[in-house]
Amino acid sequence: MKFWKYQGAGNDFVMLDQRHRRWLTRDSKDEIAHLCHRRFGIGADGLILLENRPGFDFEMIYFNADGHESTLCGNGGRCIAAFAKHLGIIEEYGRFLAIDGEHEVKMGRGSWVELKMSDVRNVERAGNVFVLDTGSPHYVRFEENLQNADMVQEGRAIRYSERFKEQGINVNLAQLNSDGSLDIRTYERGVEDETLACGTGVTAAAIASFLFRAPSAGAADIKVHARGGDLAVRFKANNDGSFSDVWLCGPAERVFEGEILL
Asked: Beta strand 123-126 with 112-116: parallel, antiparallel or unpaired?
C-alpha cells in the first residue's frame, strides 16, 4: 500500500489516496492503529483517507492514532488540502466534506494553508476555564506558568474526569502574551498524550482568549504558538455570542512517501 506522510506544526498524519482503490475502511481499526504506531508502523498522530465525494473535491475521513474514527482534526484538514493539491485535485481553492460538514480551503504561498472551520455557537465559561466545540470538543484553561505544566498528568485528569470520561475531551492549557498572541499545549484524546499541535485546540484557545480578554463583538486575528510551530486563527465575534467566518491558518508540509505491507 502506498502512503504519504504530512505534518502541520508538528501534528503528523498518514495519508491514503482511496479514489481508485479502497485499502482501508471505517472497520479497519487494528490496521490503522498499527500504521500509526511509532515503533511498529509508520508513526503518526492520526490517519486520513482521501475519497471521492459527489459535489465536493474530495471527502476527508479522519482516524485517531488508536484507530477510532474521530471528530474534525483541524491540522489534518489543512494537511489533506495540501495532499489534494499534490495529487492535482485542487489548485488554489477547494471544498471538501468532513465529519462535521463542508469546509473550504485556500492555498497560500509555500506551505501555507487556510482552512475554514465550522461556526462556534456555544461557549461555556467558569472563570479561566472554557469548554467549546470547534469541530472537536475542547477544554481550555489559561495558565501563567505553562512550560512547567505536566501536560500528560493534567490532560488525563480532565479527560478521564467524571464529566468527560465517557466521550472524552481534548485538553488545552494556554498562556496569554503581552503582544496578544498565545502559547498553547494540548493533550489529545485518541492519542492519549501531548501532541505538538492541535488545530481545533488552537482555534478553541484563540476564541477563548478573545472572550477572556474582552468579551465583545468584532473581528480578531490571533497568533498562536504551539510546541510544533506557529499558527493563526481569525474569526468574527457576533453580538449573539457566536463566532463565524473562522479560519485556521498555518503550514502543512509533505514529509515523505513510501510503501508498506498491510
From this structure: unpaired
